Amino acid sequence: MIEIAKVGDVLPGGMMFVKAGERELCLCNVNGEYYAVSRRCGHMNAPLNMGTLDGYILTCGLHNISFDVRTGKSLCPMVPHYMPGAPIQSSTVDNYMGWVEDLIKHTTICDIKTYKAIVEGDSIKVDI
Ligand code: FES
């Protein structure tokens, strides 16, 4: 077990980037229970600690794919930022955003790795 943080470093409902050896993890506090998951999104490697945490659901800030921090399973397909048919400012932006959405919808979404996190005294440790 490797210490990755102290109790109180991350408040309930919060997340933080931590390192465990060479691994980058995202430590999540769900109502006082700690969950450690891979920091990198299973879609295109965005840092998940920059997303949002709502209960057990961690949502990536880049393309809004959600993961359950208890299992690492992805929960939904990508929610596009670009909504076909929405009013647009220019055909150039429309063409570009359409191209980006078409590109990323063909990208595989992988589940994220989870790590067992425990509290010992005032330390939060993970099993790597
Ligand atoms: S990189 Fe996280 S949803 Fe695309």
UniProtKB/TrEMBL annotation:
Residues 2-100 form the Rieske domain. Keywords: 2Fe-2S, Iron, Iron-sulfur, Metal-binding. PROSITE patterns: RIESKE. The keyword Metal-binding applies. The keyword Hydrolase does not apply. GO terms for molecular function: 2 iron, 2 sulfur cluster binding; metal ion binding. InterPro entries: Rieske_2Fe-2S, Rieske_2Fe-2S_sf. Pfam families: Rieske. Its cofactor is [2Fe-2S] cluster. PANTHER family: FERREDOXIN-RELATED, RIESKE DOMAIN-CONTAINING PROTEIN. This is Rieske domain-containing protein. The lineage of its organism: Archaea, Methanobacteriati, Methanobacteriota, Stenosarchaea group, Methanomicrobia.
